[in-house]
Amino acid sequence: MTQVDDCIFCKIVNGEIPSAKVYEDDDVYAFLDISQVTKGHTLIIPKEHTKDIYHTDSGVAEKLFAQVPKIASALKQSFEPIGLNLLNNNEEPAGQSVFHLHIHLIPRYGAEDGFE
Ligand code: 5GP
Ligand code: ZN
């Protein structure tokens, strides 16, 4: 499993940085985003360090995406949103700030969308 020393998401996978775990298997880890844009905002990442979608081989992508429906359904059940956005930012101009591939799962609640 390739990991990178100065990568915060590798540290989260290793347990060096605490996180609120949503799901874990041998290849994938999902956890709540530290600054949630909506309630239940979750990130799903491969345990294998890969910088962005361009540097991700299909096998890693396959295992990552394979878990999305299950995690999305779990979020729907727990938080009862009325919609859900999947988002993946690649490279800084597109909004990527952590350079370990991740997919955002963002539950949506309608006009109010906010939460305390
Ligand atoms: P990006 O902007 O790269 O698409 O998304 C990175 C996300 O990682 C941001 O939404 C940010 O809030 C989240 N994040 C950054 N550092 C941490 C952390 O230490 N723990 C958690 N749980 N999320 C983090
Ligand atoms: Zn990493």
From TrEMBL:
Motif (Histidine triad motif): 100-104
Stretches assigned to the HIT domain: 8-115
Designated name of the protein: HIT family protein
Full-protein residues shown: 1 to 116 of 144
